[in-house]
Design brief:
alpha+beta, 6-stranded antiparallel sheet, 6 strands, elongated
Length: 178
């Protein structure tokens, strides 16, 4: 019984250390992503992405290539209309968040957040067709009004696979989700 209690205590301690490590690594990744989105947003505003979203595709794809965890890059107007998504073919119909209450509520919170970016609860991506972590970065005009929102979809399966590649202590396993 003493050995079992010691094993349980050691396992809990190891999991606690591992959880703190993953939290720190995740925060570093999202901070890096957020810092990269600011200059991208400035570029998108200069090329007038709101009126001509197609010209932004090469810039979005180049940014996306830097982060293998990102399943797609989207630009969404402040009213909730998706303007472009790199996971869809040019000219293909895109989701309109104005018609989907479940997407619109967190979208509005992100637009009004006091922080440069927000990370939402996992949601099913309407373009990726897989579960993803919504990372939303809002660009504002000089008067503080939201101009556009960029949303890299960090696919959960890609992130889980990356977390399991060499990050877990030897002998430990992270079971896959449902």
């Amino acid at each position: 019984m003493v050995n079992w209690n010691r094993d349980v205590k050691d396992t809990r301690q190891n999991l606690s250390v591992f959880a703190r490590f993953l939290a720190s690594a995740s925060q570093a990744f999202f901070d890096d992503l957020g810092h990269g989105l600011q200059p991208l947003g400035q570029l998108l505003q200069r090329i007038d992405v709101l009126n001509n979203p197609a010209v932004s595709r090469p810039y979005l794809l180049k940014f996306q290539a830097r982060y293998p965890q990102i399943g797609s890059m989207a630009v969404i107007a402040p009213n909730g209309k998706m303007l472009i998504n790199t996971a869809s073919k040019p000219g293909a119909p895109l989701p309109d968040f104005r018609k989907t209450t479940a997407y619109m509520a967190p979208f509005k919170r992100a637009l009004n957040a006091d922080t440069p970016y927000t990370i939402g609860r996992p949601e099913y991506g309407q373009v990726l067709h897989e579960w993803r972590f919504p990372f939303r970065y809002t660009m504002h005009n000089d008067y503080g009004k939201a101009r556009l929102l960029r949303s890299p979809g960090c696919a959960e399966e890609r992130q889980r696979g990356r977390d399991q590649e060499g990050l877990s202590p030897a002998g430990d396993e992270i079971p896959p989700g449902p």
